[in-house]
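quick one, 354 residues, struct below
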Amino acid sequence: MKVRNISGSIIVRKTSSNKEKLYITFKGKQVSTGLPNTEYGKSEARKILKQLNEEERNHRFNIKPEKDTLTVSQAFDKFLAQKKKSRDKKTIEWYECSYKAFFPIDFPVHKVERRNGVTISWLELNIQEMITRQAKSSATLAIYLRGIGVFVHWLYEEGYISFPVRLSRLKKMIKNAPKKPIRVYNEEEIQAICEQLRQDETYKDLAFCIEIMVATGMRIHEVLELTWNAVKKDIIEIESKDKRSIQLISRSEQVNKILEKIPRKPLQNKVFKWSQESDSRLRQALYTAMKNANIERDGRSFHEFRKTFITRLIVHNKKMNIFDIASAARCEIRIIQQHYLKYPTEQLELLLNS
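---
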């Protein structure tokens, strides 16, 4: 029995134990695949034969495999095209900023060189050089390194590079990367900001957005994309950050009071008129409200309303374990450990009341 392919063939032979195994005949030689004579075995053998044919064709016509011709910029375009299906706009922007920080020039992804007897990729050399040359802060470089780490790991997983970039070594080169301090809003600041926004006809509903973020820990893009269909009797359903699942937020009494105040227009399913693309405009409205209320910005923006929610969770619910806190905040346990639990509860309480 033979299963023909472009060149070479797959044949079935009986072993000494009377079992049928698949062999590949290619360029006058016959080699066992070790695969059984089943539909699955034939499918896998065809893949092997197809790869052999591709390698033979490339060699004959001097065609280089994609991984040998692909440049970093081309690979990054492929990476973004894949990630855009499961990542939000802000994450994609983070990847793009990280890429620009470390790869100002284009070059083949597979390119390597020998240094002190060690083979090192140009990917790693470029990142290393930009870490030492850039004037950006250690904290910013650490954030960009995490972003570019996703890209270079993808390159390795997809088979475009033969060995992974040593990110742990590069991380050590970023000297004394400081941990970002927790910045939150106190109750008086939240009330003053909302009061200022309600005086502006264009942005008065933004006050409701802020109140919902503080009461639920929702991110700004989650609030802006919220629909009335997602607001159920006891819960609010929102799409997870990676868009792969639905997360549930409990409707507390405080949340219910906020929702009752929001004007609901007939035939309009969205809770708020804005979309994610309005983020920059809304951020500017927030900063203007803070300025008019004589509130020092101190690097704070929309995300600090979520941080305020998490900080309140820890301070006001001292009996909650870390699993429950992370679950309510809809984030990883390590985030709570690294950014919140390193502070004593009393210190977090001071932040909320300062």
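The radius of gyration is 28 Å.
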